[in-house]
């Protein structure tokens, strides 16, 4: 197994976020397997909505100047992209959707990543809860012919900040991260 560059993107804006903790466990697992891991939180980042101007199709970069340009650069330079999001109304967070929309400039670029993971948390714990979130990410991946959804992990039944502590899902996230690079 070769060493991979992994970017973990936590999209929750809440302090002591459950999805953020799941992402950190995944990151620790990937690091334990010898991978180079960078953790980025959207908390505190200035990311504006895509305005649909399509100038990125002509220039290769977004016309909006904010923190998304740096995140896009990081995404282009890694082998693995991991998204972590709380599920709101059975969907990905608005912050994650906004970030994905702003990644339009990468479609015409030679992105390096092939594997994409999705880590989700929600108050509800039924098996169907993450389906729409997974579908939303699959929509992004469908536009990236070299990328694939490599794995998902859902932790339901966590509502309050930091409620995930002690959950066996943290160990599952660690183990999933430790398997990065395996086929």
Question: What is the secondary structure topology, with strand pairs?
Answer:
Layout (H helix, E strand, L loop, with lengths): L4 E6 L7 H15 L3 E6 L13 H5 L8 H9 L3 E7 L7 H8 L13 E8 L8 H12 L5 E9 L11 H11 L5
Parallel strand pairs: 1-2, 1-3, 3-4, 4-5
Helix pairs in contact: 1-6
Task: Describe, in plain words, how this protein is organized in 3D.
- This protein is α/β, with parallel strands linked by helices.
- The chain has one domain: Rossmann fold.
- The chain has a 5-stranded parallel sheet, sandwiched between helices.
- Strand 3, helix 4 and strand 4 form a beta-alpha-beta unit.
- Please give the largest β-sheet: 5 strands, parallel
Bin the strand percentage. 15-25%
User: What's the number of helices?
Assistant: 6
Radius of gyration, Cα only, in angstroms?
16 Å
Q: Can you tell me the CATH class?
A: Alpha Beta
Helix content: 25-40%
Give the uncertain stretches in residue-range form: none
What is the number of domains? 1
The name CATH uses for the topology is Rossmann fold
Structural class: alpha/beta
Broad shape: globular
Strand order of the largest sheet: 2-1-3-4-5
Q: State the distance separating the first and last CA atoms.
A: 9 Å
- Tell me which CATH architecture applies here: 3-Layer(aba) Sandwich
Look at the structure and name the CATH superfamily: Flavodoxin domain
**Which series of helices and strands comes N to C?**
EHEHHEHEHEH
Query: How many E-type strands?
Result: 5
Average pLDDT number: 96
